[in-house]
UniProtKB/TrEMBL annotation:
SUPFAM superfamilies in UniProt: YhbY-like
Ranges of Low complexity composition bias in the record: 105-129
UniProt region (Disordered), positions on chain: 91-154
Span of domain CRM: 2-98
Taxonomic classification: Bacteria, Pseudomonadati, Pseudomonadota, Betaproteobacteria, Rhodocyclales
Protein name: RNA-binding protein
Source species of the chain: Thauera propionica
């Protein structure tokens, strides 16, 4: 079980305030499937809330310590029927067999919103310039007496 300093615990409690519970532990208790789901949630989010139903406070305390010992996580907070648990994301094992990767494929990279918008602008400008080259040159506007010609009902 991971031990947290009071400052770390306070910061994690503040970050967890707006979260909703991702796992509910009900009458069957801490089954292997529930532990596996909490494991997946911790790997994905690091900080999660777990809702416990139908137990007394002492049972919830024991459940919290058992959960944290099983998953090597840190207990952040136990308030009412909600348990807040944190564990740093574990590194996933990389595939050691390079033959499973597509040949010539580039690894995917995450882009920021600004980079995505810049790429979209470049693509739109390239498309517009290509269309401008394909379309015939437009004739200059005529100077007749149409709307907006500058003359008022003479």
């Amino acid at each position: 079980m991971i031990e947290l300093t009071p400052v770390q615990r306070r910061d994690l409690r503040a970050r967890a305030h707006h979260l909703n519970p991702v796992v509910t532990i009900a009458g069957n208790g801490l089954t292997p499937t529930v532990v596996a789901e909490i494991e997946r949630s911790l790997q994905a989010h690091e900080l999660i809330k777990v809702k416990v139903q139908g137990t007394e406070r002492e049972q919830r305390d024991a459940l919290m310590s058992e959960l944290c010992a099983t998953l090597d996580a840190a207990p952040v907070q136990h308030i009412g029927n909600i348990l807040v648990v944190w564990r740093q994301r574990r590194e996933e094992a990389k595939d050691a067999n390079p033959t499973t990767q597509k040949s010539g494929a580039r690894p995917s990279t995450a882009k920021s919103a600004a980079a995505f918008a810049a790429a979209a602008r470049r693509a739109a400008l390239a498309k517009a310039s290509a269309e401008a080259r394909r379309s015939p040159a437009r004739a200059p506007a005529s100077r007749g007496r149409g709307p907006g010609s500058g003359t008022r009902g003479r």
